[in-house]
Amino acid sequence: MNIRAQVSSVFHLDKCIGCHTCSIACKNLWTDRKGVEYMWWNNVETKPGTGYPTQWEDQEKYHGGWEKNGRRLQLRLGGRGGLLGNIFHNPRLPTMDDYYEPFTYRYGELISAPAGNDQPTARPVSMISGRPMEIQAGPNWDDDLSGSGIYAANDPGVLHLSPEQQAQMFAVERLVMFYLPRICNHCLNAACVAGCPSGAIYKRGKDGIVLINQDKCRGWRMCVSACPYKKTYYGWATGKSEKCVLCYPRLEAGEAPACFHSCVGRIRYLGVLLYDADRIETATMQDDKDLVAAQRQIILDPFDPQVQAEARKAGIPEQVVEAAQRSPVYLFVKKWQIALPLHPEFRTLPMLFYVPPLLPVVSEEHLGTQRLVDDYFTTLENARLPVQYLAGLFAGGNTEEIKAVYRKLMAVRIQRRRITVGDVSESEVAKARELGKVSAEEIEAIFRMTALTSIKQRIVIPPMLREQAIEAGMDPERYKQEMGFGSRRPPKRRW
Ligand code: SF4
Ligand code: SF4
Question: Within 6 Å (CB) of ligand 2, which residues are found?
Fold first, then answer.
């Protein structure tokens, strides 16, 4: 057993209201600089939709992530030869059209325009050329356009559905959408790390946060191609790549990352997981449909005395093991099994998990009647958003994983409805619990963690022990460099 600790997250999609506060909090803190205007370390997409950069999920186009090659796993970009061969011309990079041309407005024209009969307007200007431009795309261009034939219909996940399922999704009276907030997943098997020819990207040993050493980065941008989630970006002013750092300076001070702290819907949970690094290789070699279960296998029980003993041997501090025991991520992912990784088939073992949205499966006319349970569980196959679509997003195509999550989530709703509204019979609740394979006590625990948590229960930050490195005599400059501070300018604070 080779135990390590990983700071991990869960996003509860039923709670996201698509307000983009998280994106703005991140932008103000980290990417409010010249040359990084188009970087959205945190972005919020509407699903179905094409996302940002457009169609990032389409690995036929971008060749991101890993693929099985016989008994080996190799980057879709190719082996070392392939990487080096494309170093001066990489055809798999997203272009500016896949992102958008950054723009601002000539606000000064609003107050300096000469008196006239018309209201003055602020024209959009390109932040690259400085010339007036017509805005044709943006970081959330297809926001809320779930029914759009231009955007939603081109979602790579939708294109994999049968024509009947696509028709079902786009029937006007059945249209449905949800929000998908995304940050770097701080993957266990990070393709960005493997793809970097300069060795500038690394996974921090003590907490698994993936960082780019700015002094080592040579701007080859292989990380941008290799990351299947397109969560590294190239900074045009610095000539270096940058990515989400999970606000590690805030974590080290005991503060939640800015996007977690500002989240209006309180959808974000953070906690440490203990995992067995020896099982990574086996987990990544499974068939697509078995990847979720294999990823769960890697995660260890922090209450198991043998795991605790091995953690001690591996030098993991007691406080980190204790934080793992209070981790909400452990509960959602391993104990309750209702949070799933995004696109496990990319085989990077992402450490950000999602509780899938319980979209309207039961029509309103049936809510609160004696037929609720039967109607719900028999209509799961014909859900407004096909189960196959969600399975393509969160389960490597395994619809049984999605159904198991849905059955449990619905059991929570039915039991709570009996308590708060009282129009569901006890026998129906019992049936829902049986189908969801969940006890009454577990339902109450899920409900409390979903609806009634304090920030201290949602965000359990393990001690980062920054002081240990300094007390051990490490040169503060070297420490800063290793921690990824590099030559970054201090972020400009606006609020
Ligand atoms: S999401 Fe992308 S950038 Fe983040 S660790 Fe995984 S491969 Fe690297
Ligand atoms: S701040 Fe929270 S609720 Fe708002 S869009 Fe971001 S993740 Fe969703």
Answer: 16-22, 44, 179, 181, 263-265, 267
**Rounded distance from Cα 367 to ligand 1 centre (Å):** 41
What does the alpha-carbon distance between residue 115 and residue 99 come to, in Å, rounded to a whole number? Answer: 38
- d(CA 289, CA 345) in angstroms, rounded, equals 8
Contact 458, 266 (CB under 8 A): yes
Identify whether the C-beta of residue 269 lies closer than 8 Å to the C-beta of residue 458.
Answer: yes
CA distances from 303 to 79, 176, 256, 306 (A): 40, 41, 25, 9
pLDDT tens for residues 300-324? 999 999 999 999 999 999 999 999 9
CA-CA distance, 29 to 494, in Å (whole number)? 8
pLDDT digits (tens, 9 = 90+) for 132-167: 999 988 998 888 887 777 788 889 999 888 888 888
The CA-based diameter of the chain, rounded to the nearest angstrom, is: 79
Which residue shows structure tokens 């044709």? 136
Q: How far does the centroid of ligand 2 lie from the alpha carbon of residue 395, in Å?
A: 23
Say whether domain 265-458 belongs to CATH 3.30.70.
Answer: yes
Helix, strand, or coil here: 266? coil
Cβ neighbours around 69 below 10 Å, total? 11
Residue 468: pLDDT over 70: no
Q: How far apart are CA 36 and CA 492, in angstroms?
A: 13
- Does the structure show a pLDDT above 60 at 491? no
Average pLDDT (220-238) is 95
- How many angstroms is it from 431 CA to the middle of ligand 1? 41
pLDDT tops 80 at residue 381: no
Residues with CB under 6 A from ligand 1: 184-187, 190-192, 210, 227, 229, 231-232, 243, 348
Residue closest to 469 by CA, chosen among 207, 273, 189? 207
Identify residue 287 by its one-letter amino acid code.
Answer: D
Domain ranges of the chain: 265-458
Q: Are 365 and 377 in contact (CB under 8 A)?
A: no
Sign of the four-CA dihedral 213, 59, 7, 355? positive
Q: Average model confidence (pLDDT) for the chain?
A: 88
Nearest-CA residue for ligand 1 atom 4 is 184
- In percent, the amount of the chain with pLDDT more than 70 equals 89
Pairwise CA distance, residues 251 & 204, whole Å: 13
